[in-house]
From TrEMBL:
Belongs to the 6-phosphogluconate dehydrogenase family. It is an enzyme of class 1 (oxidoreductase). This is 6-phosphogluconate dehydrogenase. InterPro entries: 6-PGluconate_DH-like_C_sf, 6DGDH_YqeC, 6PGD_dom2, 6PGDH_C, 6PGDH_NADP-bd, 6PGdom_BS, NAD(P)-bd_dom_sf, Pgluconate_DH. GO terms for molecular function: phosphogluconate dehydrogenase (decarboxylating) activity. It comes from the Bacteria. Its EC number is 1.1.1.343, 1.1.1.44.
Amino acid sequence: MVQLGLVGLGRMGFNMRERLRAAGHEVVGYDRNEAVSDSSSLADMVSKLDAPRIVWVMVPAGGPTRDTVAELGDLLAEGDLVIDGGNSRFTDDKHNAEVLSAKGIGYLDCGVSGGVWGKDNGYGLMVGGDKELVERAMPIFDALRPDGPREEGFSHAGSVGAGHYAKMVHNGIEYGLMQAYAEGFELLEAANVVEDVPAVIKGWQRGTVVRSWLLDLLVRALDEDPELDDLEGYVEDSGEGRWTLEEAINHAVPAPVISAALFARFASRRKDSAAMRAVAALRNQFGGHAVKKAGE
């Protein structure tokens, strides 16, 4: 049994706490939402942990994570360990590690995939940091990862920052996969050749080269709403796709699929695109092609 402090009990953190407890570990959680928190404050959570302590951080990336790590640096002691399991940018990890290292506190970054299904299915984990610290936290990683061979759901990606870098690229790939499924769905709907689009997509789940968990989730969504009419086609991005493209540019790695998927998300948020108005105007000017006037 391992004792763990867990900061952030949102959609992911709450389920991670439940999975860890089911595996026999003691978890003391802290969240600003008193209804789910085990502690009244970050300091209260730390006071309930036995040294040497391990604290897992699951709060929004950027300022909230940096602030939480800095506060933990003031509350924890030499020999303790902090794991950032949020979606932090990998460039933040070096800073966080240095802040804690100055006080003798260890740091690991862990990219976590699995979403709301991780509680039952386990989470894919990508970890960056010193091997000794990874081994120390391995009972936690083993409890969170999927059942089966460790290497199929867990990887020690490298030094500090490598875990979040791996998760960043993972999410960039995810963008491309989702966009491909979405475009296939739209084409099947538009062609009027296939009479039962949900049945076709469901039929891809076994024996085809495009089967995947994302496809299973699309089938689930279509079971609930066969034409997805209950949704608005407005898609946000949480940052990892942008960071992936920035890294592709920095390393001169072509990434046309990921870039197209990210730009498609941008396009989904524009009800009236100035760029497409310009395209329509140009087609009308050089070719006399028909245009739609505003309000038509």
